[in-house]
Amino acid sequence: MGLHPQEVKDMLVGMMQLFIDHKAALLQALAAGGEGYGLELIDRVKQQTNGAITLLQGRVYPALRELEQEGFVKSYESDPLPERGGRPRRYYKLTAEGRRAATAQRNAASSLFQLGWEGR
What does the pLDDT look like over 47-58, one tens digit per residue? Predict the structure, then answer.
């Protein structure tokens, strides 16, 4: 008994999620849309990929901390927000080094996807 096409698609999407590089996706989201906070960046990636990539909240925040330690992003806290019980929101933005890394990633991915496709 074969799998229904939707089951195959769901299985492939689930497998893709295992291999998503959260740090690379976050760099691209910041490069494309400017600064943002964690949940906003998760939504941005999902929207930019038409739902094909959904970053996991439990992996996004550690990835953002690593990117900051590596010098690719800088974070700052907003003023306290009443809707957050008086807590501030942490925003992230690319540094010059992060912008260079995002551009290099984008160029590498573009080159990879162009291999073998010309004239076919």
Answer: 988 888 889 899
**Cα 69–Cα 36–Cα 46 angle in degrees, nearest 5:** 105
> Nearest-CA neighbor of 37 among 12, 7, 57?
57
The Cα–Cα gap between 86 and 64 comes to 23
d(CA 46, CA 29): 10
- Contact assessment for residue 35 and residue 110, using Cβ atoms and an 8 Å cutoff: no
Parallel/antiparallel/unpaired status of strands 36-37 and 90-94: antiparallel
Listed as ranges, residues in the chain with pLDDT below 70 are 1, 8-19, 112-113, 115-120
CB 61 within 8 A of CB 37: no
Domain 12-113 has CATH 1.10.10.10: yes
Q: Is 99 helix (H, G, I), strand (E, B) or coil?
A: helix
Rounded-to-integer distance, Cα 7 and Cα 68, Å:
38
Domain-by-domain residue ranges, the chain? 12-113
